[in-house]
Amino acid sequence: MITEEMIDSLKRNDVSKNHVLTKERIKATWDVMSKEEKLKLTKYGITRTSVDRTRNFGNISVKLAAAIALVTGTNPFYLTAEDDANTNEADEDSIRQFVTQHGQGKALTGDIKPKRSAKKIDKSESEPDIVEPSIIDEPTKKVMPLEEYARLQLEIITPKKLDALNSITNDDITVLLENLTTQAKYSEDANDLLRLLRLILIR
User: Fold this and answer.
1) 18-48, pLDDT tens digit by residue?
2) CB 144 within 8 A of CB 50
3) What are the residues facing 61 on neighbouring strands?
4) Which phi and psi (to 5°) does residue 26 adopt?
5) d(CA 103, CA 201)
6) pTM, whole model, 2 decimals?
7) Pick from 87, 86, 83, 48: which is nearest to 64 by CA?
8) Can you tell me the distance from the alpha carbon of 106 to that of 74, in angstroms, rounded to the nearest whole number?
């Protein structure tokens, strides 16, 4: 059985044979995935950053392709543009073949220890190592509109958290904003969040 730890141990170098096709296919696959499927990807160590980067640039790792294949049944060779056929019937055997063909079959034997630790996660492991394409592949960096970013975030939060957001009153928002303004004086992260909120308000 392919475990979450096995997928999480896979390398993150780019294996796409055609960035344009990979970008199109990942976007199409992502758009039809359910909230539950998107949430399940995180159990395989897939961050939203890695998915967005693939949707924007067309880079894809063995790890991401294998995880999506396990969750949705999508042919991983289709996602990497190594195959034009997508039967949506990928199983563990075909995923093992994909991983092995890319030289990482040992990771699925259980011989490699997971990269992540329950006690401590190295900062370098929190983001994908997929190399962005050269200026020839992507002359300009795509900027995601705030509205699209907001929609994507709302798609992956739990119903309970969404209900909590909807229940926040104007008075609560005022208090939270005042607290964030105070924090921004001492924290660059808080200051970035405050500037983002201001940008949303004047968009």
Assistant:
1) 999 999 999 999 999 999 999 999 888 888 8
2) no
3) 14
4) -65, -40
5) 49
6) 0.55
7) 48
8) 22
Write out pLDDT tens, residues 87-141: 778 888 999 899 999 988 888 886 555 444 444 444 444 444 444 444 344 444 4
Which residues are CB-contacts of 59 (< 8 A; sequence separation ≥ 6)? 14, 16, 19, 22, 53, 130, 131, 132, 133
Tokens at residue 39, please?
């949430």
CB 22 within 8 A of CB 119: no
SS3 122: coil
Q: How far apart are CA 150 and CA 191, in angstroms?
A: 19
Residue with structure tokens 């105070």? 182
Closest among 51, 125, 72, 65 to 96, alpha carbons compared: 65
CB 116 within 8 A of CB 125: yes
Joined together, the tokens standing for residue 90 give 């990928």
Furthest-apart CA pair in the chain: how many Å? 57
The DSSP 8-state label assigned to residue 126 in this structure reads S
pLDDT digits (tens, 9 = 90+) for 41-86: 988 888 888 898 898 889 999 999 999 999 999 999 999 999 998 8
If you search the block for the tokens 């563990």, which residue do you land on? Answer: 92
Tell me the two tokens of residue 57: 């640039």
Spatial CA neighbour of 58 closest among 27, 99, 104, 91:
27
